[in-house]
């Protein structure tokens, strides 16, 4: 059983930066970040392949967010720069037993509990 634990969320101002972490137990997998704002559907943010060489980003965060991973620590990161109020959401870490990242929610079968990110204007 894979367990994912997110950390690093918080309250920041527009233009600030924040780094999220996701610690995984067990084997490494293709992993990703999703987010869900109040009253909205969960959306894809970024994904990273098992080796870390392949990454993919959602259109709304491309150029501002960077996903990375340290397989020696079984940890994935999301560096979020130039944050905007519309980035406010609960951010979820997810993983599945694949090699390359996926943008599809239904590809992921392991999920963390989520961490709140709030960006004030």
Keyword list:
single chain; 121 residues; mainly beta; seven-stranded mixed beta sheet; four-stranded antiparallel beta sheet; 0% helix; 49% strand; globular
Distance between the termini: 40 Å
| Computed structural class | mainly beta
Strand tally, please?
11
Mean pLDDT: 96
Oligomerization state: single chain
Number of helices: 0
Shape: globular
The succession of helices and strands, N to C, reads: EEEEEEEEEEE
Segments where pLDDT lies below 50 for 5+ residues?
none
Helix % is under 10%
Main beta-sheet strand count, sense and barrel state: 7 strands, mixed
What's the alpha carbon Rg, rounded to whole Å? 13 Å
Task: Provide the β-strand percentage band.
Answer: over 45%
Task: Characterise this structure.
It contains no helices and eleven strands. The chain has 121 residues and is mainly beta. β4 (30-36) and β5 form a beta hairpin. The mean pLDDT is 96.
